[in-house]
Amino acid sequence: MLDLFPLVRPLVHALDPETAHNMTVRFLSRGLSGRFGDTGDDPILATRLFGIDFPNPVGLAAGFDKNADAITGAHSIGFGFAEAGTVTPKPQAGNARPRLFRLKEDRAVINRFGFNNKGLENFAENLAALPRRRGLVGANVGANKDAADRTADYVTGIERLYGLSDYFTVNISSPNTPGLRALQSRAALQDLVDRVLAARQAKMDAGAAYVPILVKIAPDLTSTDIQDIAAVATSSGIDGLIVSNTTITRPASLTSRHKDEMGGLSGAPLMGPSTEVLKAVYRATGGKVPLIGVGGIASGADAFAKIRAGASLVQLYSMLVYEGPGLVTRVKTELAMILKDHGFKSVADAVGTGI
Which residues does the annotation mark as catalytic? Predict the structure, then answer.
């Protein structure tokens, strides 16, 4: 199918960024006929991780579909899996608008949404309403801004959504909820992981199936932070790490007039820094903890770089703003070609080969 996004991009970008985002979510929430030229996944892209068979390793990152409205649409444009959220136990409005900014010259985005979402009950209802033969779904859970015990909010999210998603992500790395990133410290992370894993064990003791639980971390970490996170990850039984969330740093290369807006920066400028953190985490964990690489992916070569840096799966979101939905198929097609050109038989064979 012809990719028409380059023709409509000027119209989309003429809209307020959050308005355009909400329109896109509504469009995808209605499902899409056709797959933007996607004719199915090359067998070389099939990936098994966490005991789950992924048709391809390219997923939709959390933040796009906060309320699990557009899961079916995300799969229809070729994603191998879609992560919805971040969802908090209670609905919350998030930060005041404007809170989303396009940095067009830098092919980047800054957001300071602040976990705006409709809450767990709405999220759970949307997941429960998905077709029985749905694609793979991850549930990204967070804490309310006013929570007295933020770790308890994560436990609440997992308990309520258990059995409705294929995996969970515990988001402790958003820069837009004050104090949230403190949960990445070793003692706080250990307590958090212990409590969410205990919640899973309670579900399993009651007869429920095993559901993998991952933790999403920031790119703005010191080497000590990385060693601490790696120590908890390798000793606790957590299933994996997602590297990384948005960054609070501002590279000197930024030229957009919005470059100094508060919030998390994502898009092309995050590709290099997030990949370096990914490598550091892979080294620190000795390759023993599965990783998902996120940040700035705009091509199959970018996805391959993440995989060689230690990622078994990748996710993208911000670059869709500039490339449109056809990006998903292009990344997959290019990645399959690159894997074959390098003599790899699967994605798994290439993981960590660039370390």
Answer: 174
